[in-house]
Design goal:
With about 140 residues, the protein is α+β, with helices and mostly antiparallel strands. The protein has one helix at about 10-65; strands at about 70-75, 80-90, 95-105, 110-120.
Length: about 140
């Protein structure tokens, strides 16, 4: 063999540095995936809570009776991790009520979503449902 021949391959130092770079990149990738999954789960919980709060308001609206005060409950066996608290109060305008529905985690009691709106109660004896028409009468 001659003294000027080239040696092919990688040295041990080059292999160790490559493995170290790969390890750091893999840890970063794992942390990124974990953060994305956690954010996705939190977003899912908040979206579910928002829909449940809107459903509670629609249930109240369908009942047509708005008694001032605070009530609470749960959403049944399908949504055991959520509880609601509903507060109804009168306003300065007769028949108009402020409604707040707060959805919270049933285990920790932390508020997940808070929905506020106003509902108008028809006067007693009124049978006006919705007298607007969008089409032609035939």
């Amino acid at each position: 063999m001659s003294a000027t021949s080239c040696q092919a391959g990688f040295s041990l130092i080059e292999v160790i540095v490559a493995i170290l770079i790969l390890g750091v990149a893999l840890v970063g990738l794992t942390e990124g995936v974990t953060a994305a999954l956690s954010s996705s789960k939190a977003s899912e919980r908040q979206t579910t809570a928002a829909q449940l709060a809107a459903g509670q308001i629609e249930t109240l609206r369908a009942s047509g009776s708005y008694d001032d005060g605070q009530t609470d409950g749960d959403f049944g066996d399908e949504f055991l991790q959520y509880r609601w608290t509903q507060t109804i109060s009168t306003t300065d305008i007769p028949g108009l009520h402020d409604v707040e529905v707060e959805v919270e985690d049933s285990q920790t009691g932390n508020t997940i979503y808070d929905l506020k709106t106003s509902l108008f109660e028809l006067p007693q004896g009124s049978n006006a449902v919705n007298q607007t028409s969008t089409g032609r009468q035939r």
